[in-house]
Amino acid sequence: MLNPQVKPRVNKAQTAVETAGVKHSMNPFDELSIEESVRIREKKSYPNGVTDIVAFTAGPPKSADILRTAMAMGADRSIHVETKDGDEIEPLGVAKLLKAIVDKEKINLVVLGKQSIDDDSGQTGQMLAGLLGWPQATQASKISFEGDGKGVVVEKEVDGGIETVKGCLPMVVTADLRLNEPRYASLPNIMKAKKKKTEKISAADLGVDVGRRLKTVKVIEPPPRQGGGKVEDIDGMISKLKELGAI
Amino acid sequence: MASILKALRPVAQRITSTARPALRPARATRVYQHARPLSSTPCRRDDSADIPPTPITHRSETESMMAEAVSKFANDVIAPKVREMDEKESMDPAIVEQLFEQGLMGVEIPEEYGGAGMNFTSAIVGIEELARVDPSVSVMVDVHNTLVNTAILKHGSNWLKKKWLPRLATNTVGSFCLSEPISGSDAFALATKATKSDSGYRISGSKMWITNSMEAEFFIVFANMDPGKGYKGITAFIVEKGMKGFSIAKKEKKLGIKASSTCVLNFDDVEIPLENLLGEEGQGYKYAISLLNEGRIGIAAQMTGLALGAFENAAKYVWNDRKQFGQLVGDFQGMQHQIAQSYTEIAAARALVYNAARKKEAGEDFVRDAAMAKLYASQVAGRVSGLAIEWMGGMGFVREGIAEKMWRDSKIGAIYEGTSNIQLTTIAKLLKAQYTS
């Protein structure tokens, strides 16, 4: 996805945000997911131990950079479902791909970002849990495991407090902002990541149809912001609001 | 007619060059003429490596990842502390610790010693990225990597390597002590003496302008063992912070790179063990010359990073924030031409820096390239960071943000690791040797 520091612009055809020649980086929520997986291993919080962390992406060839970052952060290997430049897979397509990978790789915990930050869909995790028939916990701000090696307790921030949910493995968890603070890939780990493997695979190899089911009608930029005015004090604000007929 | 001759010149040159094959070393026959069809310059590339030449801005995958990781770290972790560290004239110990954690203090140290095991250009990339945010942090990393670590890697005994490389990569800051009150540009006039003692060596004298000296616990010290032999008596030693007779005499207050420590060091009959000899006796001057030749590329990268940082800071301001006469100030042609000129100069300086780094890595002679890179990069850094203040007007002049700091920081680029005049002398000396018949 686009680097969050970059100001997105709508392309000329008004069909999407311009992605050519713009800096890309990992979705911050996905970064949290990778970090959490590595921490679960490092802190040995899962009693049976973490045997394998697989980073996954579906995107154009350039997405391989994201996987290398994930492996430099601590993932053991990665899987890249390669698409053509400009082709974008919808959340349902990604969920189907993930299901195929989960089945193939015998994975028992999927941690993903709670949403993409380009289109803010927030659907993939939920769809994946539905397709797999697994329990899901969304927007996790804390993940812990019970001693039996099955129970997973997830805390999530809701209005006015913390909601705690419990489920059993296998499970899908999506990461919220305060789950952790992702590490920077250290230089020795960047070098180690070079020796880790990335498996390239196509949607067809997995027998998944990622064809589009949604049609984007039009993408437009928000109207430019009008400059506001400053008021001296509360009285000033009240009179201004009255002037505008707001009160 | 003249123009036809001109057009034929490349062909003619190629014919003459193949006509006297005996004068040329044996080479692979494949020549990449397709890439430079009109060039009259003979292709100098060694074609045994079957790779067409790439743009000088091309980075390896490792180098790009390095740039990205360091840039992110610098912007998230260092940037919020830059102003405070400058005002306090001290380096935040938490930053030093994180530099070690990130592996930035052992870029070229092999993995077996706990370093990252990366190449020289990666170190250059890291130094440049750090300088975009804070040239003070950048010079700490630069001196530690390009001078100290390299000295041990190249000249250290196995014992020294095993003992110190893992520490230099993970928790011990190093410092390079050559300059003295009486010897700066004339580095080998140094007066610090070393004599043989029963258990090793005894060092006495003092050093000045020593970068990293507050934070460092490991010092490479150059001292003369036999002043009668002149510079051929100069020998390099390792002094540790806790050794008896070693002291920090004075911390300098400076114009720029204030967060980087610069001190006067005293060596009052410091006894060091035999193992702390670096390399061989009497070879110190050779080590210093070769280390500084490489180190210059690091300083040049610090300066291009600084120039980029100052440029970007100002460009963002004039093209997004500041409006006068009803338009963004960056939309005035007078501004745009200055901005375009500045960026061109930065790009030219970076080309020199990366070319010098690549030549060093390829094992080619790079002394003149390093001198040119350091000279020009420091000039560009001074010019661009100065203009950047003017573009920003009052906002550039105040001690907020980084504009005025970058300009102050740029000044040191023309002074340390060989002044601009020393670089010019080096360049001219090599040119003269080339053109004297």
From TrEMBL, chain A:
Pfam families, per the entry: ETF (PF01012)
Keyword Transmembrane: no
Keywords, sorted A to Z: Electron transport, Mitochondrion, Transport
Biological processes annotated in GO: amino acid catabolic process; fatty acid beta-oxidation using acyl-CoA dehydrogenase
Gene3D superfamilies assigned to the protein according to its UniProt record, in alphabetical order: HUPs
Molecular functions per Gene Ontology: electron transfer activity
A GO cellular-component term linked to this record: mitochondrial matrix
CDD domains hit by this protein: ETF_beta
Residues in the signal sequence: none
InterPro entries in the record: ET-Flavoprotein_bsu_CS, ETF_a/b_N, ETF_b, ETF_beta_N, Rossmann-like_a/b/a_fold
Domain annotation Electron transfer flavoprotein alpha/beta-subunit N-terminal: ranges: 14-210
Cofactor(s) essential for the protein: FAD; AMP
The record's free-text note on cofactor binding: Binds 1 FAD per dimer. Binds 1 AMP per subunit.
Subcellular compartments: Mitochondrion matrix
Quaternary structure and partners: Heterodimer of an alpha and a beta subunit.
Function: The electron transfer flavoprotein serves as a specific electron acceptor for several dehydrogenases, including five acyl-CoA dehydrogenases, glutaryl-CoA and sarcosine dehydrogenase. It transfers the electrons to the main mitochondrial respiratory chain via ETF-ubiquinone oxidoreductase (ETF dehydrogenase).
Family: Belongs to the ETF beta-subunit/FixA family.
Protein name, as recorded: Probable electron transfer flavoprotein subunit beta
Organism: Amylocarpus encephaloides
From TrEMBL, chain B:
Region Disordered: start-end pairs: 33-58
PROSITE patterns (UniProt xref): ACYL_COA_DH_1 (PS00072), ACYL_COA_DH_2 (PS00073)
EC number in record: 1.3.8.5
GO cellular component, one term: mitochondrial matrix
Acyl-CoA oxidase/dehydrogenase middle domain boundaries: 175-270
Pathway given in the UniProt record: Lipid metabolism; mitochondrial fatty acid beta-oxidation; Amino-acid degradation; L-isoleucine degradation
Matches recorded under Gene3D superfamilies: Acyl-CoA dehydrogenase/oxidase, N-terminal domain, Butyryl-CoA Dehydrogenase, subunit A, domain 2, Butyryl-CoA Dehydrogenase, subunit A, domain 3
One BP term from GO: fatty acid metabolic process
Catalytic activity: butanoyl-CoA + oxidized [electron-transfer flavoprotein] + H(+) = (2E)-butenoyl-CoA + reduced [electron-transfer flavoprotein]; (2S)-2-methylbutanoyl-CoA + oxidized [electron-transfer flavoprotein] + H(+) = (2E)-2-methylbut-2-enoyl-CoA + reduced [electron-transfer flavoprotein]; 2-methylpropanoyl-CoA + oxidized [electron-transfer flavoprotein] + H(+) = 2-methylpropenoyl-CoA + reduced [electron-transfer flavoprotein]; (2R)-2-methylbutanoyl-CoA + oxidized [electron-transfer flavoprotein] + H(+) = ethylacryloyl-CoA + reduced [electron-transfer flavoprotein]
Acyl-CoA dehydrogenase/oxidase N-terminal domain segment(s): 60-170
Molecular function via GO: flavin adenine dinucleotide binding; short-chain 2-methyl fatty acyl-CoA dehydrogenase activity
Compartment annotation: Mitochondrion matrix
Cofactor: FAD
Major localization listed first in the record, in broad terms: mitochondrion
The Acyl-CoA dehydrogenase/oxidase C-terminal domain, residue ranges: 282-429
Keywords, alphabetical: Acetylation, FAD, Fatty acid metabolism, Flavoprotein, Lipid metabolism, Mitochondrion, Oxidoreductase, Phosphoprotein, Transit peptide
Assembly: Homotetramer.
Family named by the database record: Belongs to the acyl-CoA dehydrogenase family.
Name listed for the protein in its UniProt record: Short/branched chain specific acyl-CoA dehydrogenase, mitochondrial
